[in-house]
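Entry 12.
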Amino acid sequence: MFHLAKHARADGPTGPTGTPPPPGDIDEALWRGAAAVLGANWTGTYTVPSRTLYPHQWSWDAGFISVGLAHVAPDRAWRDLRSLFEAQWPDGRVPHIVFDPDVTERDYFPGPTFWGGGGTTPYPGAPPTGADGVPARRSTGIVQPPVHALGAWLICQRAPGEAAVAELRWLYPRLVAQQEYLATARDVGGAGLSAIVHPWESGLDNSPAWDEALANVPVDLAVLHRYSRRDTLVVASDHRPTDEDYARYLAIALSYRDRGYRDADLAGRHPFLVECPGFNALRGAAELALARIAEVVGADPAAHLARAAGITRALVDRLFDPETGMFHVRDLRTGRRSPARCVNGLLPLVLPDLPEPQVSGLVAAITSPRFGVSARMPVPSYDRTATDFDPYRYWRGPVWFNINWLLWRGLRTHRQETLAGTLRTALLDLVRDSGYYEYFHPDSGAGIGSPAFSWTAALTLDLLAAPDDPG
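Predicted 3D structure (tokens):
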């Protein structure tokens, strides 16, 4: 998410009404503050990441947001996921942004005209309505990490009942279709891992993990004259991607768009194809969540369990480096693994059947000077000891709440309870001291980006509630 807007739709509540009190003896001010952020960012249909910066619906944001809403407004949690999946494409992909038609093109770039090639349909070849007869909504043609099945399962865990089962019945075939798309159309390397076709698909937009692959994408700065950046008009340019990187991002998106977002023959024509350990670990976690959902809705969980096991094996075989004790991205154009030690290389910790040598390597990395989790500070997005570590520039150093929440879950999954408790303390102290920011300075803890960011607020609620079983 690099893109900014001046305003978002102002309808919907300005704060939570009837917010349930916090469970147990926990920080009530932090709880109510987080719930208030989610209330203010609710449009009446879904929750935006930020009223000022991100005025549309983002895919993986919706998954994280639903986890927090489950504690204070489960009906809104389900509505968020429904809203997103109502925009699912016929091939199963869930777009990374679903656009609000009431937000003008001049307030956000790249908006629906860019992604649609100037057309008025939601995407090339789109039907006028979706499978449910709902008018199709305009969207991007790329995806984001599939955290939605995990979100759906956790809503059901946090707020069980007949309504939750009914929602799972509606979502289950759509979640399966999402996973099927990623497992087939995106298995470019043929080894059981999904390839991402754009850095934005990873969620870690300008991470150093992509530097080597991006270096092979030609730079045409003229594209910035055709499509003007708006982010650097309102945010310091040294907090954002460089012009060269942004030109590459637009070129990659245009390459995919101008071929109708077709995935056939990606290996032969697309300029950016990378296997990301974080993306694929979350895809494996989604299969495990789907196995649990399948049992609730009367489906067979076996295929989901088998696919999750296959993803774990492929991650270990293709992306783990025994010398670093971490997972690294693989550029499918060159076959090389990036040497950069980035936080997406720690995310396979969320997989419960990850072998012990890999678990030990990741725990060692998390506690090393490179990432240095402590009671004072969570895990940064990049190796602190790297010469190009940048504490301000988006995914090249700052701390991100959603990634640390996933690592907290992974540590608990592998019975690293003491370290998980340390990380939880650091995260809650971060928002207690600085607020519910989009991301944070990795040394001072100062908030950076949006000051009322939905997934930070949502996951604060989940950390405060901290059920004995992480789900």
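Annotation: Residues 1-17 have pLDDT under 50 and may be disordered. The first strand starts at residue 57 and ends at 58.
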